[in-house]
Write a structure and sequence with these properties.
- With about 240 residues, the protein is α+β, with helices and mostly antiparallel strands.
- The protein has one domain (about 15-240): PPM-type phosphatase domain (Phosphatase 2c, domain 1, 4-Layer Sandwich).
- A 5-stranded antiparallel sheet has the order 1-10-9-6-7.
- The protein has helices at about 55-70, 75-100, 150, 190-195, 200-205, 215-225, and strands at about 15-20, 30-35, 40-50, 110-115, 120-125, 130-135, 140, 175-180, 185-190, 230-240.
């Protein structure tokens, strides 16, 4: 009901979240978007694809549809199904709207999101936006890039070509992975404006810092290291309910 807060997801821990985005040096419009919806355990980033029209429209449509679709308080299985259905729905909508234009256009966006349950997280993604899990001193990349560069074993291309995304084609396959979560873990979702500029050592060092302003520091460091693309980060720290961990 309007005006009422969403009920929280039952869990034995609490969340601290930080999010930030910055428009790329050569851009007039930020084509990244993000969602932070703690009551639904939903955290997402989306990156409108350069070279296609209306990247900002596509990325914002994705996070808006996800935010509406995922039900706070629902079991993790239900929320994952809602998110997957939402991504397929917005993929079809973006594609059909594009081919109905005169002349037809293609538009699309990457997406990476995490949904949190009581002791498990589920990551969904399409494209080269990434999700990471940091546990102790170890950083694990949960996603793998859907890009020509990744397919060819890291070969250098003048422009990194995205091989999977939401919107450019009538159907899309959403990749999924499941990960155990525990107090003390840190999750990071970011667009390639961050991941292309910061290696794992830099990310580990940043994620080990305080939560206050963490995402802004990650984005600022990416810019300092040469990122000229839109850069977005969503960081989530999982802490024990009593504040320990």
């Amino acid at each position: 009901m309007d005006g009422q807060a969403d009920p929280p997801v039952p869990r034995p821990w609490r969340l601290d979240a930080s999010a930030a985005t910055r428009t790329g040096f050569w851009h007039t419009v930020n084509e990244d978007a993000f969602a932070v919806r703690e009551p639904a355990g939903l955290f997402a980033v989306a990156d409108g694809i350069g070279g296609l029209v209306e990247g900002a429209v596509a990325s914002r449509a994705i996070v808006e549809v996800l935010t509406r679709a995922v039900t706070p308080g629902a079991p993790l299985e239900t929320r994952v199904r809602e998110a997957e259905d939402a991504l397929h729905h917005i993929n079809e909508a973006l594609f059909l709207e594009g081919i109905e234009r005169r002349p037809p256009v293609r538009r699309g966006s990457t997406v990476a999101l995490v949904l949190l349950g009581e002791a498990t997280g589920v990551c969904l993604w399409a494209g080269d936006s990434r999700a990471y899990l940091q546990r102790g001193r170890e950083l694990h990349q949960l996603t793998h890039d859907h890009s020509l560069c990744a397919q060819e074993g890291g070969a250098i291309h003048p422009r990194n070509i995205i091989t999977r995304a939401i919107g450019p084609a009538g159907e899309v396959e959403i990749d999924c992975c499941v990960v155990d979560i525990a107090p003390g873990d840190m999750l990071l979702m970011c667009t390639d404006g961050v991941s292309n500029a910061l290696d794992e050592a830099a990310l580990r060092a940043l994620l080990s810092g305080p939560m206050a302003g963490l995402a802004e520091r990650i984005v600022a460091e990416a810019v300092a290291r040469g990122s000229r693309d839109d850069a977005t980060a969503v960081a989530v720290r999982i802490a024990a309910a009593d504040g320990a961990g």
